[in-house]
Design a protein that fits this description.
The structure is a single chain. The chain has 446 residues and is α/β, with parallel strands linked by helices. It has 12 helices and 15 strands. The chain has 3 domains: 2-46, no CATH class; 63-71 and 342-444, Aspartate Aminotransferase, domain 1; 77-337, Type I PLP-dependent aspartate aminotransferase-like (Major domain) (Aspartate Aminotransferase, domain 2, 3-Layer(aba) Sandwich), CATH 3.40.640.10. The chain is globular.
């Protein structure tokens, strides 16, 4: 770290009692240190602006069919117009109810919409994202049941699984994975039944699952669970425009990624985690809940009704150390749902269904492709098997043409090197489909 000598100030070093500047970094292991950064010379503001414009001009538009948890949906202009208002954009987290009534009301409305969407009785004010919502659901299952095992399906996002593993490790919980049917793509009920036992705190099933397959077996899961074991259901909120609300078939906790509700893909974040449950578990929920009340003069007012986290109560009684509810992202989701309404959500969900099924049918007509690979019903994404070619190889060729065809699954699931996860939402046009189909046909049959 010799480059640090350029920054040494003898008077300052004497004042704080150090002989050399390197001693300030003594806590950093030697192997983690670097010998400076290879940075360009400093630029004036106008020179920097011009340089950034040159770099940005190198970007090229990409036609994306990526899914796997983050989706390209239309965002009404009103969403960004509303969340960009100063009273929302700068208010951050409403710690002072007397000065934050607007944001508190907005979050209350978001909670109400999530309850109506999921069929649950209570929703928190949101979490970081869908992955942390799953981790919190596992810990909540253990708190409610005082049991130590959590069962998840094999067919979930590997990244989501990694976040969950980090969450449960400190709590000493064990994870079990239920395999999926290689024909239908659905989670297998018989292996699930065998895994259930006296230590099972909760069972997590998501529908649509990572392959886009709708888990029809979910309607039966509640009936086979041991007494007190929680059923945690993961959802794509857009799919609930056409699918049954989880609260109607026995879910105890509903979680999900709220990004499809008015948030851009934006390099993977920020997002918002949906978390709702039965009312009887409200005090075991993570995060906070905004409630409707009356002020000292009898006027309607909003306040943080529940905030059982370590910042507010004794650490050993806290449900979570979640320190934000992604308030602005939750506001965007709430505005989006209010704008499109019940009929709008159904229309968008049907467009997702139609586009994805039309694309799958066209790809399946190409010699060398099988789409969808799984026979189970699917929502807005599906799997494509490529004959005689690895999926990542096909993707690399199409990316050169400015097309992102989907996610190669070879590094994520064993025996799926030749499988691609492809997604089509309401934003894709017939011309977009033509371009993808033409490119895939040319690469597969060259």
């Amino acid at each position: 770290m010799n480059y640090l000598k350029d920054f040494e100030d003898p008077e300052l070093m004497k004042e704080i009692g150090i002989e050399d500047i390197e001693s300030l970094f003594s806590d950093i292991p030697e192997k983690a240190r670097i010998q400076g950064l290879d940075l360009p010379e400093e630029l004036d503001e106008w020179e920097l602006k011009r340089r950034m414009e040159e770099i940005l001009s190198m970007n090229r538009p990409v036609l994306s069919f990526l899914g796997g948890g983050v989706y390209h949906h239309h965002i009404p202009a009103a969403v960004n117009a509303i969340i960009s208002r100063g009273e929302f954009f700068s208010s951050y987290t409403p710690y002072q109810p007397e000065a934050s009534q607007g944001m508190l009301q907005a979050i209350f409305e978001y909670q109400s919409e999530i309850c109506e969407l999921t069929g649950m009785e209570v929703s928190n004010a949101s979490l970081y994202d869908g992955a942390t919502a799953l981790g919190e659901a596992a810990l909540m299952s253990a708190r409610v049941t005082r049991k130590s095992e959590f069962i998840i399906p094999e067919a979930i996002s590997p990244e989501k699984k990694e976040v969950l593993q980090n969450y449960v490790k400190g709590a000493g919980m064990a994870l079990k994975e239920v395999p999926f049917d290689r024909e239908s793509g659905e989670t297998l009920l018989d292996p699930l039944k065998e895994m259930l036992g006296p230590d099972t705190a909760g069972v997590y099933i998501e529908s649509p699952n990572y392959f886009g397959v709708i888990e029809e077996s979910l309607l039966e899961v509640q009936s086979i669970l041991p007494k007190k074991t929680l059923l945690v259901v993961g959802i794509n909120p857009i799919s609930l425009g056409v699918l049954e609300a989880p609260g109607n078939y026995g879910a105890d906790v509903v979680i999900g990624e709220g990004q499809p509700l008015g948030l851009p893909m934006n390099l993977g974040g920020p997002h918002v985690g949906i978390f709702a449950s039965r009312k009887k578990y409200a005090r075991k929920m993570p995060g906070r809940i905004i409630g409707l009340t009356r002020d000292s003069e009898g006027n309607r007012a909003f306040a943080m009704t529940l905030m059982t986290r370590e910042e507010h109560i004794k650490r050993e009684k806290a449900t979570s150390n979640i320190c934000t509810n992604q308030a602005l992202c939750a506001l965007a989701a709430g505005v989006y749902l209010a704008l499109i309404g019940r009929s709008g959500l159904r229309k968008i969900a049907l467009l997702n269904l139609r586009n994805s099924h039309n694309l799958a049918e066209r790809l399946n007509n190409i010699s060398g492709l099988a789409a969808p690979l799984f026979s189970g019903p699917f929502f807005n994404e599906f799997t494509v098997r490529i004959e005689g070619m690895k999926a990542d190889g096909l993707r690399e060729e199409l990316v050169e043409e400015g097309i992102e065809p989907g996610i190669p699954l070879g590094t994520r699931f064993q025996g799926m090197d030749d499988v691609l996860l492809t997604c089509s939402t309401e934003v894709h046009t017939p011309d977009d489909h033509d371009r993808l189909v033409s490119a895939m046909e040319r690469v597969v049959n060259k």
